Amino acid sequence: MGNALALLVPMPEPWTAVDVGAGTGVSTIALARACAGSSVVAVEPEKPLREALASRLAQDGSVGPRVTIAASLVDVAITQPVGCLFARNVLHLLSAFDREALLREILKLDIRGPIVLSVDERKYKGAEGGERLIDARVIGESRYERWFAWESVNHGQIDCTNTFRVFVGDRLAREVSFRATRYESALASSLDILAAHGFVHSQNLGVDFVSVRR
Ligand SMILES: C[S@@+](CC[C@H](N)C(=O)[O-])C[C@H]1O[C@@H](n2cnc3c(N)ncnc32)[C@H](O)[C@@H]1O
Fold it and tell me: Does domain 132-183 match CATH 2.20.25?
């Protein structure tokens, strides 16, 4: 990720870099390192993740002091032009409505450099609806299994369920499931919206990143 971002034109110092959907800060730190010297705004709506991000940044003296954390783009005054806007692994998690709303907020910014997107467009293997064993390992007397199932709901919405099971001998001792929703074609629809505002394809930064700029 760092190598891909380093391909960006270096930013003059008065510009700000913005990481949208910062999570716990993996992308924020990569962006801040690629834009050495610049201020960085990290936007993350989930409070627990903002707290984790703040504690991660507090441990990084070269990056932490340059980063401002915000709950949304509306909550933060970005007074300088934006030299780079990064959205890593965010857009495919949003419905078409929420994705467009976020892109419209992004497009209100004075963006002078690239918008760099990384969108997970993976296609699911295996039968829809059926559970598939992803991983199994035996530790001591326990067997740990991870199962995955996906289901296409509507409008390109895919609901994914990861289920973790622990067996002691033949007995199921514990089962926990996590559901997550993702959306297909998030990249194409985002690029259409950005293109309508003059942001055109600039370069593919490795397989995972697409960059557009005016
Ligand atoms: C999979 S995480 C990616 C985190 C980080 N960018 C990274 O690459 O490690 C997606 C993040 O996007 C955030 N998110 C969801 N909706 C958002 C929105 N409308 N605006 C900004 N961030 C959003 C989620 O809370 C989550 O932390």
Answer: yes
